[in-house]
Amino acid sequence: MVINTNISALNAASQLMQSQASLSQSLQRLSSGSQITSPADDPAGLAVSMQLTSETSRVTAASNNVADATSFSQTQDGYLQQVNTALSRMSELAIESQDVTKTTSDRALYQQEYSALGSYINNVSTQEFNGVSLFDAATLNVTTDPNGDTFGMVGMTLKSATYTTATSDNITSVSGSQKAVLDTEKAINQLASDRANIGANEESLSYYSNQLSALGNNLKAANSQIADVDVATESTTYAKDNILVQTGTAMLAQANSMPQSVLKLLS
C-alpha cells in the first residue's frame, strides 16, 4: 500500500476527464445543431461539407438569375400583348379607311388614332427592365447552374423595318390604307414569331429553374447527412456521458479516500 502514487485515483481522474470532454462535445452539438463543432470532430467531413455548402450557395445564386430572367421574359411578353392589340387595331383602322363612304376628314381622324398607336409601339421599343433594354435584339446569356454554364435567351426588337414600316404608314388615302393593311399584317406575323421565341425562352428557363431546385434540395440533404446532428442519438450519448461524469466523480472521491486507510496501520 502506497501514499505518494494513487493509481486508482489517477485512473479514475483520467476516465472522468474523458467523460467530461465527451459530455461537453454532446452539449455543443445539441446546442448548435451541428455534428461538426470543430475541425477535429471530422476533418474529412468538414471539407466535404464546406464544398457542398459553397455549391449550394452557387445554386441559389443561379436560381435567382433564372428567376430574374424569367421575370424579364414575362415583362417582354406583357408589352408585346399590348403591341399585338395596338397592331390589330391599326389593321382595323386601315380597313375602315378604305371605306368609299368615308370623307377626307374621316380618314384624317383614322390617321390620328393610327399614328397614336404607332407612337405607342415605338415607345415600347425603348422600354427597359432594371436598366436593361427589353427590345434591343441582343441575346442574353443566363447562368443556369453552379458551374457557370449559360442559356442564350433569344432577343427581339421592335425597331426592325417590319415594325417601323407599319407604324409609319399613312392611311389618309385608299392606296395608303391598302399598304398599311399589308404592313400591319406582316408586323403581326413577325410579332407572333417573336412571342413564340419569348415563350420558348420562358419554357427553357422553367426547366432550368426546376433542375436547380432539385439540385439545391439534394445538396442540402447530402450536407445534412454530414453536418447536422442526429438529436435522438446525441441525446442518448449526452445522457450516458452525464451518468459517467457523475459516477466518475463519485469514484474519484472514493479513490482519493483510499490512502486514508494507511492511518489505521500507523495507529
Give the tally of β-strands: 4
Q: What integer is the average pLDDT?
A: 89
Low-confidence stretches: none
Strand order of the largest sheet: 1-2
Question: What is the CATH homology-level superfamily of the largest domain?
Answer: f41 fragment of flagellin, N-terminal domain
Kindly identify the CATH topology of the largest domain: f41 fragment of flagellin, N-terminal domain
Tally of separate helices: 7
Number of domains: 2
Query: In terms of structural class, how would the helical and strand content be classed?
Result: mainly alpha
Largest sheet geometry? 2 strands, antiparallel
Radius of gyration: 39 Å
Q: Between the first and last Cα atoms, what is the distance in angstroms?
A: 15 Å
Percentage of residues in DSSP E strands:
under 5%
The helix-strand sequence is HHHEEEEHHHH
Residues in helices, as a percent range = over 70%
Shape: rod-shaped
Q: What is the top-level CATH class of the largest domain?
A: Mainly Alpha
CATH architecture of the largest domain: Up-down Bundle
Could you give the topology of this structure?
Blueprint: H1 7-32, H2 43-96, H3 104-124, E1 128-129, E2 132-133, E3 140-143, E4 150-153, H4 161-167, H5 174-227, H6 231-257, H7 262-266
Helix pairs in contact: 1-6, 2-3, 2-5, 3-4, 4-5
Would you write up a description of this structure?
This protein is mainly α. The protein has 2 domains: 61 residues; 173 residues, f41 fragment of flagellin, N-terminal domain. 73% of the residues lie in helices and 4% in strands. It has 7 helices and 4 strands; from the N terminus they run H-H-H-E-E-E-E-H-H-H-H. The strands form 2 sheets. It has a two-stranded antiparallel ribbon. Strands 3-4 form a two-stranded antiparallel ribbon. Helix 1 runs antiparallel to helix 6, helix 2 packs antiparallel against helix 3 and helix 4 packs across helix 5. The longest helix is centred in the N-terminal third of the chain and has 54 residues. It is rod-shaped, with a radius of gyration of 39 Å. The two termini are 15 Å apart.
